[in-house]
Every structure is written in C-alpha cells, then in structure tokens.
Amino acid sequence: MVKKSKKQQPGGTPATVALTAAGVPFTVHAYEHDPAHPSYGEEAAEAMGVSPERVFKTLVADVDGSLTVAVVPVAGSLDLKALASAVGGKRAAMADPALAERTTGYVRGGISPLGQRKRLPTVLDDSASAHATVCVSAGRRGLEVELSPADLARLTDAVVAPVGRA
Fold this sequence. Notes:
With 166 residues, the protein is α+β, with helices and mostly antiparallel strands. The chain is 25% helix and 30% strand.
C-alpha cells in the first residue's frame, strides 16, 4: 500500500525537511519495504505503480578522488565514463558503500540526492526532463519523494547530462 502526502510529516527526513524549507511542491510516497527484494528502485516503482523511467536512483561514485552523486533512472544503469566527463573528470568508479553512507548521512537503498550531510557535486540524467515529475529516495528505504526535475536540479545544483544508459 502506498500512502501519499503533500505535507511534511512529523519525523521527516533531511530530504523532506530541505524540500519544505525551500518551499518546493512535492509528494511523499511511503510503501512497505521488502528486504528480500533484489532492487530498491524497482521495488519503489512497483509499489507506487510508477514507470521505472520516472523513478530515479541516487548513486555515489568516486570521480578522480572526489565523491560525486549521480541520479539515474532505476530502469537503467550509470555510465561511469559519462559521469566523469560531465564533471570534468577523467575516471569514475562506484564509491565504497560505507563511505557513501557516512558522507551522505543516509543508508544504502535510502540515499537521497536532497538533504545530504555533506553536499556533493550532483549530476542528474537528462532523461528526467522528459517527465513532469520524477521520484527519488526521500531518505530511507520505503519512502520516495516526487517533484519536478527542474526543482530537483535546482535544489541539488545538479549538472544535467546524459549519464544513464538503458
């Protein structure tokens, strides 16, 4: 079951607090997380009844020694070479999960591009602009936030570039 709310709920996450503080319209989607599901993003899309092309996962990569956030559709994967190029780097690799968790303040499967403990350079896949709204993690497993891709890019100071692949 998916619960929807446009108002900030008590006990919100740093992501929802940041959205509320910015005055950005958003919708929270909560669902029962199944720890046995093989993909956090696909689980979210299924639970919400939303196309996987509109649900975006937040990945943390190491680009030339600096952590960088990539936000790409759950229906595809991250092109590390394109990510490095988008931020003026040469080489990218997925970051150590424990380092990503410590740096962002979120747990794997619940990392949001919004409200991170340490603001990291962010790249949003350009496919987001094809949708009126997209969904990203709201900061914990089983919780997504839906907002316009323009607001997401603005609030994260994201570079918009083709970094996802089908």
